[in-house]
Amino acid sequence: MSVFSQLLSRFNRRRPRRKAEPHAITAFLATSRWVTALIFVTTVAAIVFISSVGVSTGDLPVLPNQLATVRITAAVPFNYESREKTRFAREEILERVPPVYRLETEPLAQFEQAVHELHAGLGRLAAAGEKRTAAETRGALLPLLEAFNARGPYRASLEDVELLFTKVSADRRTVLLESGLGILREIYAEGVHDDSLATATAGRLAVFQIARGDGEVTMRHVQSVEEALTYLRVNLSGEDMPRDVTLALFRLLRNGVTPNLIFDRDSTAQREQAAVAELKPVVVGVARGQTIIEPGTRVTNEQFEMFNAHRRALRDSGTIQLDENLQLFGRVLLVLAMVLASVFYIRLEDRETFQSNGRLGLLALVVILNISLVRTVFALGTLDFFVTHNTWASTLPYIAASAFAPLIVAILIDAGSAIFMALFISIFTGVIYGNRLDLLVITFLASTVAIFACRDVRKRGKVVRAAGLGGLTVAIFALLVGVADQLPFPTLLQQFGAGLASGVITGIIVVGLLPMLESLFQRTTDITLLELTDYNHPLLRRMQLEAPGTYHHSLVVAQLAENACNAIGANPLLARVCALFHDIGKTNKPEYFIENQRTRGNPHDESNPSLSALIIKSHVKDGVDLARKHRLPKAVIDVIQQHHGTSLIRYFYHRAVTHAQGSFAPFQRPDSKSPLPPGLEPAAVSESTYRYDGPIPQFKESAVILLADGVEAATRTLRKVTPQSLGELIDALFRERIEDGQLDESPLTFEEIAKIKGSFTFTLLNMLHARIEYPTESAAGEGPAKA
Q1: Each residue of 487-533: pLDDT tens digit?
Q2: What's residue 321's pLDDT?
Q3: How far is CA 658 from CA 199, 654, 673, in A?
Q4: 312-340 confidence digits (pLDDT tens)
């Protein structure tokens, strides 16, 4: 034995086996319960601060006819000019201003002309002096009657005209008609209204009449049609005539009694303007503590105006109104209850997250960021634009990116935690916006839709699409709630667009932050893993060119590990990516690994066994360095460190033991399951020198890759692949790894190990299948039998 070997052996006896343990500070931060408590306290304090400090009911987006959810009271005394009350006062004044009418005389002039023409016709008929029979008289009077009725809406009868013609002389008829027309002039001068204008006071109608062209208006009594007809009948009965003649004349003249009261729009408008001109704006004084809006009621226009005046008063005075329903102590209790509920949920459903401060820190960070986003959007309501444009202010609750944290948690952790996170964020969104139950339900539903749409996401575009579907959900239900609140159509469109845009923007923000959160909290998404499967990755290209044997080995291990993880319910994509990169350290010295030597000589033949073992082990450290240099995910680095565990480099250990006994002779490399030759004493050589530094596999995918790596290498020694030989080889290797303690810290069960064996056997039998031996041309020429 050489002096170098003796010194190295003594040094190794004194040195304990090294293990790749994490840095003390890193381990403390990752597992310390003190750090967990700090995360808890910090989260509670941050949420209380964000959701309480500066939150004012005066900043709530309120619209008329919406259902109020909180009581809003005046934080400061203020006065304001009320447009609503001024409008009510104006309407009352206008109601007290009576309408102005004018008297229309045209119907009377038309009737007088018709009567005069009828009277003239009767005079001409009487002047003819002809004696006629009653029938002939009727025939002569009929054209005159028809001409009279055709001049207007008159309905004189032939009997009345015949009576006036036959029983009254021409001179007397002239007197009677003039007297009757005079009565009609009096009636028209007073005015006649129809029943639709009768308002109501003892059968009288007090109206304004423009008496002169200068616009002077006087009050006078105006008769109804019935009153005018009574007046006509009474005055005609005073004439010295037979009763039948009086009635005939009344029936003739009643055709001239029609309503002549016409509404004068211009004059009425002038009277109204004159009355309103004296109206002064109504100033309303509001005392401190006075209720502006009551919860559970629809917001009226008057309350809405007072609310806006209150907001302006708060802004001008610089006063901050705290939410009266949830004061600071109440908010602390609410936040504490919600965070405790989250802790219990994680403790029951996701123990891995509960035991990892990194995951808890991720949850706390995204919750704080999400509530900060909601709070920031809420604060936009204090800007002048939103104060003066209330319809745009009503879109703020739907702009808040409430699905931000649930999407990140669903991608980086799991869907169960994401759904609870969605409920958590939705509750505080509803609380910040005034205990709005409708907003809580809408945002929770939208977040759930987004979580469902991004399950098993492997492309960044799908994250934006999932968030967009969540935004569409917000938009649709905001539209339905707005319809129920009877909001104007333009406001509905604004809220619909705000919800849709919020979803898309949330997706873009999540996609942009994912790489930073992955790096900061050492999480790996399927999106990143899928990108790493690109065979043009610099490390994979280098392996293809410099270590093609290792590259092919990695491809086979990746296929084995992916199929096995799929069989046991682990992450097949993670297993595939980790397997592709698990041996990248061999690219630094590819010629020292048997799969890359091809026809070249083996450099280990001339090397000391301990030096060869050191070179073999160095590919793990070199692989970790390359992975960190190329910023590969932590899971890949962990697999590179763990894919050999602390297993023994049996070949070189065997050589070292042989050297130690002084009987080394060249021999063929034994397979991994071969026992040491009898009579060799391992204690003569430090075993730790020939063991990998580890650690042993800590998660399922790493353990599967450790097994796949050994199985793929061992199958190269099989001269003939049969199900029996392959099964025996796999069983022996699994048994050796278990007995060596390489799976002690992995979460694999014996049931899962059995499934992994079956998957390996199935995959390898299909990979290593035999081909039919095709005949050569000479054999084919000798005939089918020979062939």
Answers
A1: 888 889 999 999 999 999 999 999 999 888 888 887 888 888 888 88
A2: 52
A3: 129, 6, 18
A4: 787 777 665 544 444 556 667 778 888 88
Q: Tell the residue number behind the tokens 């009567």, with chain if given.
A: 115
Is residue 283 classed as helix, strand or coil in its secondary structure? strand
3-state secondary structure of 383: coil
Give CA separation, 590 vs 154, 533, 604, 724, in Å: 123, 22, 12, 33
Is the pLDDT assigned to residue 763 strictly greater than 60?
yes
- Could you tell me the two tokens for 705? 């890759």
Q: 370-393 b/e with 16+ CB inside 10 Å = b?
A: bbbbbbebbebbbeeebeeebbbb
Torsions phi, psi for 534 (to 5 deg): -65, 120
**Neighbouring residues of 759: CB distance < 8 A, sequence distance ≥ 6:** 560, 563, 564, 566, 567
Residues 6 or more apart in contact with residue 608 via CB below 8 angstroms: 2, 4, 5
C-alpha separations of 259 from 102, 117, 154, 196, 267 in Å: 11, 23, 14, 11, 20
The crossing angle, in degrees rounded to 10, of helices 225-237 and 243-253 is 150
Q: Is 632 left (phi over 0), alpha (psi -120 to 50) or beta?
A: beta
Bridge partners of residue 567, in order along the sequence: none
Least confident of 74-83, 404-413, 439-448, 574-583: 74-83
Query: What is the Cβ-side half-sphere exposure of residue 399, based on CA atoms within 13 angstroms?
Result: 16
Beta bridge partners of 648: 691
Q: Identify residue 708 by its one-letter amino acid code.
A: A
Query: Can you read off the two tokens belonging to residue 88?
Result: 């009510």
pLDDT tens-place string over residues 202-234:
444 445 444 445 556 666 677 788 888 888 888
Alpha-carbon span 129 to 141, nearest angstrom: 15
User: Of 340, 290, 320, which Cα lies nearest the Cα of 72?
Assistant: 290
Q: What tokens does 397 get?
A: 């609750």
CA distance 48 to 725: 66
Take residue 473 and report the two structure tokens written for it: 């959900």
Contact indicator for 191, 209 with CB cutoff of 8 Å: yes
**Do residues 198 and 81 make contact, with C-beta atoms less than 8 angstroms apart?**
no
Q: Helical H runs in 66-169?
A: 83-96, 106-127, 134-150, 158-167
CA distance 419 to 439: 17
Single out the residue of 570, 609, 601, 590 nearest to residue 708, CA to CA. Answer: 570
Name the nearest CA neighbour of 78 among 305, 322, 378, 379: 305
Strand 217-224 relative to strand 192-193: parallel, antiparallel, unpaired? Answer: parallel
Cis peptide before 548 (omega within 30 of 0): no
The total number of residues shown for the chain amounts to: 787
Separation between Cα atoms, residue 668 and residue 683, nearest integer Å: 23
Rounded Cα distance between 391 and 343, Å, is: 40
Q: Could you tell me if 707 and 737 are in contact, meaning their C-beta atoms sit under 8 angstroms apart? A: yes
pLDDT band at 715 (very low <50, low <70, confident <90, very high): confident
Q: Which amino acid is at 344?
A: F
Determine contact, residues 288/75, Cβ cutoff 8 Å: yes
Q: Are 331 and 48 in contact (CB under 8 A)?
A: yes
Per-residue buried b or exposed e for 670-707, using 16+ beta carbons within 10 Å of the residue's own CB: ebbeeeeeeeeeeeebbeebbbbbbbbbebbbbbbbbb
E strand or H helix that includes residue 312: helix 301-317
What integer is the mean pLDDT of 664-669? 42
* E strand or H helix that includes residue 221: strand 217-224
Could you tell me which of 429, 330, 417, 335 has the C-alpha nearest to residue 378? 429
Residue type, 529: L
Q: 301 and 83 in contact (C-beta within 8 Å)?
A: no
Mean of the per-residue pLDDT values for the chain? 81
**Segment holding 79, helix H or strand E:** strand 78-82
Q: How far apart are CA 479 and CA 732, in angstroms?
A: 66
- β-sheet bridge partners, residue 291: 73
